[in-house]
Amino acid sequence: MLRVLLPIALAVFASAGSCPNAPRPDGRCGPSFGNAGCVANSNYPCCSTYGWCGKGNGYCDANVCKGTSTSSCPNAPRSDGRCGPDFGNAGCDTKSNYPCCSKYGWCGNGSGYCDSNICSGGKPSPSPSSKAPAPVPGTNGIKKYLPESQFNQLFPNRNPTYTYQHLVSMAAKYSSFANSGNADNDKRELAAFLAHVTHETGTLVYTEEIDKSGPYAPYIGRGAMQLTWKNNYQAFGNAIGRDLVTNYASVATNADLVWWSALWYWFQNGLHGPAGQKNQFAQTTRTINGAMECGSNPPNTQGDPHRVALFQQYCRMFGVDPGTQLSCKN
């Protein structure tokens, strides 16, 4: 990621310790917040040193809580297809096509849902409205909402590695990306994706991080979402059948991988679902770089407002309501 590193004294760290108390509804955690834990079988299982529940680097590698709380899902399915501890312990309709709750809080079926079902059991729904929207066959969210001419206007000075054709091709590997069947949600997801990509790459100018001396080098930020840290390179490489631990530079030079890495990260970290929902943009920022940009006194004070402004800009362009509560500052 493109980072602004400030003196460590500016950060407000939580002390290491156990967190025996129930998770808070605002996602705060750790000793500075009443020793509240995080929900272990949710999308935000670990407590960062800044006192936010989240996932990935900055959260689970520095988890200040020794233990977290868990929960089953005893409540009735929701009409929007969300489920699990982060959504009122709502279950999934076991008699529908979407019987299992993924670790990202969506009801569905097959790999990614039933193999990691975070709910001990769902409940039959009184109506079919609990079914999550299904991808629309034969369509592509990128081509539907972002024609090539508009892409070229948005990014006239982009690095030539970032091509529209490769973006469309890589997005086709994730058939539900900006293609859920709900136009407003699809537009918001695409707006959120573009906002983060624009921020991370300086409007698609950079394919790799400017500062190459970080503690994670040589696995510095690369690609449209600035994939960072060795474990992410290894996981992405394993997912696509390539050795990216050795060939890490290709994430910045290969026209497929600059987009593929971003979309893989998007789905791997559970951003696909929340990004399309109103009032959930803050959570996408928290997942991507929350340890550096979120909370009341983050090391990087410029990142979050820039992402929010970009998201609002793209939502206006697509003609969709961005919602409120967009900042992850609080």
Offer a quick outline of the entry:
With 330 residues, the protein is mostly helical. It has helices at 141-145, 148-154, 164-171, 183-201, 230-240, 250-253, 255-268, 272-275, 281-293, 303-318; strands at 46-47, 53-54, 100-101, 107-108.
From the helix content, strand content and strand pairing, which structural class follows?
mainly alpha
Please report the distance between the alpha carbons of the first and last residues.
22 Å
Spatial order of the strands forming the largest sheet: 1-2
CATH architecture of the largest domain: Orthogonal Bundle
Shape: globular
Main sheet characteristics: 2 strands, antiparallel
Strand content: under 5%
Secondary-structure element string: EEEEHHHHHHHHHH
Number of domains: 3
Report the mean per-residue pLDDT as an integer.
80
Overall number of strands? 4
Helix content: 25-40%
Name of the CATH first level of the largest domain: Mainly Alpha
**Number of helical runs?**
10
* Rg, nearest Å: 19 Å
CATH topology of the largest domain: Lysozyme
Spans of at least 5 consecutive residues whose pLDDT stays below 50 are: 1-16, 67-71, 121-135
Signal peptide: 1-16
Domain Chitin-binding type-1: 26-75, 80-129
Keywords: Chitin-binding, Disulfide bond, Plant defense, Signal
Disulfide bonds: 46-60, 83-101, 92-107, 100-114, 294-328
